[in-house]
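Our preliminary data section would be incomplete without showing what the modeling component actually yields. Below, a chain of 190 amino acids is followed by its predicted structure, encoded as tokens that our downstream tools consume directly.
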Amino acid sequence: MYITQGLKRAVQVNRDSIATIDGEHQQTWKTFAERVTQLAGALQDLGLQTETRVAILSQNNDRYLETFYAIAWAGGIIVPLNFRLAPPELVYMLNDADVQILFVDDTFKHTLPELLPHVEDLQHVIVMDGDLPPNTLGYEDILSKAAPIADVGRGGDDVVAIFYTGGTTGISKGVMLSHTNLVSNAMTAL
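Predicted structure:
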């Protein structure tokens, strides 16, 4: 089992059906998959290698979903961040997970000055929408310059994501989940 399997199947059977609706913006599975493979190429162009940790600090939107799949497609490890946390908690998670690439949406880019000086190994910050703060990259800019890549084929027991616990009994802990873990959880939720 692997996360990207569901995307491949959706393109195979529902290519021209609507994949995402985000406000007035809609896209088909074909377009969604094209953007995912291209964003995966952009991530590799930025230096993503197998198991590079990539965090997402964003509200729910179509670019979040594209980013989620692109990280897995390129062989990275997804680190979704809870946007309700305070900057010191986010800094802890970014450092603990050894995040090298951070995606942030317009809603949370104002927190970058509180985060960036304290994050040790961060190499790239990609702003998903809106104006670009200094030393950041634009989502559509990197996407437009990249070539699509083939799925690197990680799956099974390979780690695909690190989710942080709520930290109610102490410091949050990163829980490593494999492709099989996430696919199995998704299948039981149906």
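Strands lie at 18-22, 25-28, 53-57, 77-80, 99-104, 124-127, 137-138, 159-164, 174-178. The first strand starts at residue 18 and ends at 22. Preliminary results of this kind motivate Aim 1 of the renewal.
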